[in-house]
Every structure is written in structure tokens, then in C-alpha cells.
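FW: tagging you since you asked about this chain on Friday. Here's the raw sequence from the shared folder, copied in full. Didn't touch anything.
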Amino acid sequence: MQYLQKFKKQYNLGTQIAIIVGIILVVNFLSYQIFVRFDLTQNKIYSISKTTKQSLKELDDIINIKVYFSEQLPPQYISARQEVEDILKEYQNYANNKIKVEFIDPKDNKELQQELQMMGIPRLQFNILENDKYEIISGYLGMTISFEDNKQTIPVINDTGNLEYQLTSSIKKVIAEKTPVIGITSGHGEVSVEEMSIVDKKLKEIYKISNINLADTKKIDDNIDALLVVNPKEKFSEESKYAIDQFLMQGKSAVFLLEGITVNDNLTATSNENNLNSLLEKYGITIESYFVLDKSNEPASFTQGFMSFTTPYPFFVKVGQNGFNQDNASVAKLQSLILPWTSPLRIDFKNNSNIKVLAQTTKDAWLMRENFNLNPQGNFGFNPDPESYSLVVSRFGELTSAFDSAIGEEEYTNNSDNARIIVVGDSSFATDQFAGRYQDNLIFLQNIIDVVALDEDLINIRSKKASERPLKETSDGSKKIIRYLNVFGVTILVLAFGLIRYLLRKKSKFADDL
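HL: got it, structure written out here
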């Protein structure tokens, strides 16, 4: 009888184990059939965005993606390969089999290696430690995205954090009937493309870039979708201003990066001679010939003789999250923006209700109107005004021409219902010196170009990964409290715990004695 009971217990235990194993197998099988991921990060940086999902669902035909990854890679790139595979599987899942992915190792294929070189995918060299010595190996980390005869290349995938933006923008570009064209103006002492090589390279990932010499142009070509005007320092003729005005009247777009005051390499400030203000004022926006200084600023590094030093520099205005317009996609997800030697923008809101402030200073900002002393060790005259200053503004929608009639024999249009203008009171932020150092500066410029020339879709992807997580400003009193808690808090807690423990033990001993 005991043997039978023991047998039943073992049988029941075996049955329970079999049921549990069966459940695990079924769940495991279903997990492969149903695609689910949980991403607990704030901006969902490890999951593809709604924009990408929607774009993939709308694909009408097959997109071919070829990943050229070498099999033999240093250990630090092995995880990158796995992450690329995971991302592409997610793309395939949402594309309903409209994306075909192929991994290729070009190691022994000389002909393929030559093709990759022609496509701009380089053969990389890596240092690896093997047999107690460093050796150099070569390999590939590139990708191509193609549709019919259109092809886009991602030369090197060394950071998967930005891969979704690169992939989705490449897919949009290969299926687009027309690639948007950005016209960068010249002829009036503008910042050169060489000084903005980082921006130029990023813009070329999405757009075609065309040089527009406004000194020789009476009419901007119709194939240009948006103008980028970067800090001209010479006066525009009426014909040149008219060309810009009529371009906007055709429902086109323009981004103006202008400075009221020019700063040279010796930190000498002079008034900017360009006269575009006479055009922008008619649109309700004026660039003041002042400097904005702010208690919220980025420290700057300077060299004096043989010494280098870093110091708080109120001229390097730092716009934080609270300074961005949270209703505008181009700036809503930015963490910061550094605007060096920026000028304030004055807005005429009368009959211009479609003007919006995109970025502004804190209320601890002030203006330097004269006697411009940019010396980092000088007296900045800290005197905060009880208001914020506008640094970036937009005007979208209805726009009336700044001219009452045509100039010369050119055509004349009086107004537009869908013009798009963005004005920034600074241009230095877009140069290599600052765009290379502050990632959000580059993202900001890409965003405002996208919003005037393309759409807001890519902005939401690009801005997911914040490059900076600044600490919130705290008062001096709060800082002291936190400091004292750090110094004495743990000691007080230990003493309190010991005292409570002592009293409890004493109480327990007293009860035992009774």
C-alpha cells in the first residue's frame, strides 16, 4: 500500500513536470510566431518609431537591403552585428515581407570589393590582440538599400543608435519620385560650405545641395525647394531681395541663420552690413544688433599666452528643455542648443499671428547693446531682465510680399498661403567648430531644414536619442541641503538605526525579566 501511494505521488509529480515543460514549449513556440518587444527607455530608443512602422506598411514593392559585414571582426563589433540583425528583423516584420535582407562577407571576392569601393563602402582596418600580439585585419561594416535603379549607401555602421534614422531616410529616398533640393546662397560673404562641412555632409544624406549665387541671380530656379541663408555680411541689391521674396511667394521655404553683429577671430564685434532685415521686417521679424547673454550658458575654452582655461561664458547661450516650444516637432525633443554670440529677434505679432517662437532664453538673460566687450575675463554686466528673449522663430502659412510691385521684367506674386520661414539669430552654431562638438546643434539644424523642405516624420526618429541629459537647475539652498545630507545623512541613519535597535532589545529584555 505504501508502495502504491509512493508510486502515485511520483506519477503526479512527473505529470506536473510534464505539464510545466509542455506549457514552456508552447509559450516558446508562440513567442516565435508573435513579435513583441518591450522598451522601457524614455524615448523608446531601442524600438523603431511609429513613423518607421507606418512607412514600412505603405511600401508597394520590394526593398532590397544588403549588409556587407565581414565574418571575422574584433570582439567590440560582434554585438553591433547582432543589433543590426535584430533591427532588420523588426523592419521585415512591419514591412509584411516587402523588405529582403542579405548578409554578405566580401572577404574573398575581389570583384565585389571593387564594387563596394565604387559605391563608397570602405575596407576598414582593425587592430586585434591575438597570440599575445597586436595584428591588423581588414573588414567591412557597410550596407546598401536599393529599389529598382535607386540605391543608397550606409558606408560604415559603427553606431546602431542612429541606424533607424539612416535606414528609414534611405528607404524614403530610394522610393521618392523626386529628391528635395536645398539651395545654399552665396555672393554676399556668407559662411562657406567648407566651414560647415559637417552640416553639408549630413544634409546630403537626404537632399541634393545646390549653390545659389544671389549676386548674379534675378530669379531662383523652380527646382529649388528651400533656401538656406547663412550669415551674409554684405548688402543685397533690391533685385536679390526681390528674388528671395518671390521665391517665398511661390509657396517655397527659407531658413535664415543671421547675426545682428559679426564676431571675428580676435573677439572683436562689428555691426553686420547685410540688409536682409529690411526684407524680414516686412514679414514681422527683426534681428536686433545686440548680444544676448544668459545665466544659462556653456563654458568656453580660451588660450592666453601659453595657458588654456575654461570659464563660464554668458555669450554662449544655452537653451534648455524649458526654452523650446514643446508643440513644435523640430525642437520639442531637443535637450539643449548652444547659440554663440547670438542676437535677439523682435517679433511684430500685429496681423502676424502665424509667427511662433521655437526657442528662447531663460528669464535670467540680459542684453549688451553697446561697448561690446567679449573678453572672457571681462565684466559682463550681469543684470537679468524679467523676460525671455526670442532666439529662433518660425512663420508658416499666409505671407504677403514685401514688395508692392514687380522689379524690372520679373513676374510678380502678391501673396502666398503656404510659405515657410525660420529665422535664427545666430549662424556660428552650425559651423564645424560647434556642430561637431554639440550634437544637438546639428540635430536642430537638420530638424528645421526637414520641417521646411520635407516633413516632420524624420524629425521624430532623429530626435529619439538625446545626446545630453542636463541636471535641473536647483537653488543654492537646495544645493546646501543635498550637500549636508550626503555628508551627515548616512551617519544619522546608522545612529538612528542603532538607537532604535538598542531600545527594542532593552524593551525585550525588560519583558523577559518580568
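FW: Residues 1-34 form one domain.
HL: agreed, and The mean pLDDT is 84.
FW: great, closing this out.
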